């Protein structure tokens, strides 16, 4: 995760990724549009390729040397959570969609043999419904994360007090909870214990 954040921390690399979301580019095109030398662009592309974010493919052109085009290799969504009590990151990678009711409905709308204006209206209405549902799920996720942070913070404070009062009791409770606690919380409790 740290490596990914370092790679994305560079403005030129972010600009390259943004351009590649539009279409594949070759080095001299990127260099010209970015106003950055080709050598520097090649280095940025190497870093992005090593991170698994882009890929290059060589294409023959009718006249001249073959060109290496770069495009996005895989999509992902990166979330950074920063609060008074926690810092963390999560990466979500899109997978092949399951054959859900929504997926089947989208496929039916796409394959429908209707006039384009009718098809576009139906697709945009369904897209609006999907967006509304995503917003609802994200709101619920945020609310649940707040509850999770409250509980984790309380448990951490409670275990810290217990560690100050009795090593034996702390170890006993920790052994009981070890298989039930999320790994990150368990590590945080152990870190606090070592710091006492």
Relevant terms:
about 200 residues; alpha+beta; Arc Repressor Mutant, subunit A; three-stranded antiparallel β-sheet; two-stranded antiparallel sheet; 8 helices; 5 strands; flat
Short description:
The chain has helices at 2-8, 11-20, 27-34, 38-50, 101-111, 116-165, 167-177, 183-195; strands at 25-26, 54-59, 67-72, 77-82, 87-92. The chain is of the alpha+beta class and 196 residues long.
SSE inventory with pairings:
Blueprint: H1 2-8, H2 11-20, E1 25-26, H3 27-34, H4 38-50, E2 54-59, E3 67-72, E4 77-82, E5 87-92, H5 101-111, H6 116-165, H7 167-177, H8 183-195
Antiparallel strand pairs: 1-3, 2-3, 4-5
Low-confidence stretches: none
**Strand order in the largest sheet:** 1-3-2
Tell me, rounded to a whole number, the average pLDDT.
Answer: 86
Instruction: Please write the string of helix (H) and strand (E) elements.
Output: HHEHHEEEEHHHH
- Identify the CATH class of the domain at 2-72: Mainly Alpha
Number of strands: 5
Number of discrete helical segments: 8
Termini distance?
29 Å
CATH architecture assignment of the domain at 2-72: Orthogonal Bundle
Helix proportion of residues, in percent?
A: 55-70%
Compute the gyration radius: what is it?
A: 25 Å
**What is the CATH superfamily of the domain at 2-72?**
Winged helix-like DNA-binding domain superfamily/Winged helix DNA-binding domain
> Which structural class is indicated by helix and strand composition?
alpha+beta
- Main sheet makeup: 3 strands, antiparallel
Question: Strand percentage, roughly?
Answer: 5-15%
């Amino acid at each position: 995760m740290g490596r990914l954040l370092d790679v994305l921390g560079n403005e030129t690399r972010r600009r390259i990724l943004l351009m590649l979301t539009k279409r594949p580019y070759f080095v001299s095109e990127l260099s010209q549009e970015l106003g950055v030398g080709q050598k520097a662009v090649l280095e940025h592309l190497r870093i992005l390729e090593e991170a698994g974010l882009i890929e290059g493919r060589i294409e023959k052109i009718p006249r001249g040397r073959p060109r290496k085009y770069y495009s996005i290799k895989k999509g992902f969504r990166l979330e950074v959570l920063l609060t008074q009590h926690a810092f963390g990151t999560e990466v979500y990678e899109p997978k092949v969609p399951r054959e859900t009711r929504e997926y089947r409905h989208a496929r039916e709308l796409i394959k429908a043999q209707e006039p384009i204006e009718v098809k576009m209206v139906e697709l945009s209405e369904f897209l609006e419904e999907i967006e509304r549902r995503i917003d609802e799920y994200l709101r619920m996720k945020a609310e649940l994360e707040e509850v999770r942070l409250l509980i984790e913070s309380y448990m951490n404070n409670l275990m810290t007090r217990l560690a100050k009062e009795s090593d034996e009791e702390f170890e006993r409770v920790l052994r009981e909870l070890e298989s039930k606690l999320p790994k990150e919380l368990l590590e945080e409790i152990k870190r606090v214990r070592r710091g006492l």
